[in-house]
Design goal:
It contains six helices and three strands. A three-stranded antiparallel β-sheet has the order 1-2-3. It has two domains: 52 residues, Ubiquitin-like (UB roll); 63 residues, 434 Repressor (Amino-terminal Domain), CATH 1.10.260.
Length: 124
């Protein structure tokens, strides 16, 4: 009989193991852990958020705020940064984490007047 347990479970993000607080089912005999799909998704998003905080990266909400400040939709920001069409959506939903280089570029777009115009001249 599986029992509900609380623990910090390991989750891999960019080659690093992140320990994420979790409520899950565990077999008291063999120790097997089972997560419901909803909890697994929450676990993934929390691991991404912890990774971002640990490495000083912009949060999903901060990325969304930058995009809105620039008056761009997700597809337009992706084109400006020469990214795949769904990349910005994944960053903003917490499904993926941006690289350090993309994080710096997003901060430049936010902080340096003229950087959007500069990229628009050079974006495909």
């Amino acid at each position: 009989m599986m029992k509900q347990a609380r623990a910090r479970l390991p989750y891999p993000v960019n080659g690093e193991t992140i320990l994420v607080p979790s409520v899950h089912l565990t077999c008291p005999r063999c120790g097997e852990t089972v997560l419901e799909l909803r909890e697994w998704k929450r676990q993934h998003e929390n691991a991404i958020a912890i990774y971002r905080e640990r490495h000083g990266l912009l949060s999903a909400d901060e990325i969304r705020a930058i995009r809105k400040q620039l008056g761009l939709n997700q597809a337009a920001l992706a084109r400006l940064l020469r990214l795949g069409g769904n990349t910005v959506s994944r960053w903003e939903s917490g499904r993926n984490v941006q690289s350090g280089a993309m994080d710096i570029l997003l901060r430049m777009l936010r902080d340096l007047p003229g950087s959007v115009a500069y990229l628009r001249k050079r974006a495909a």
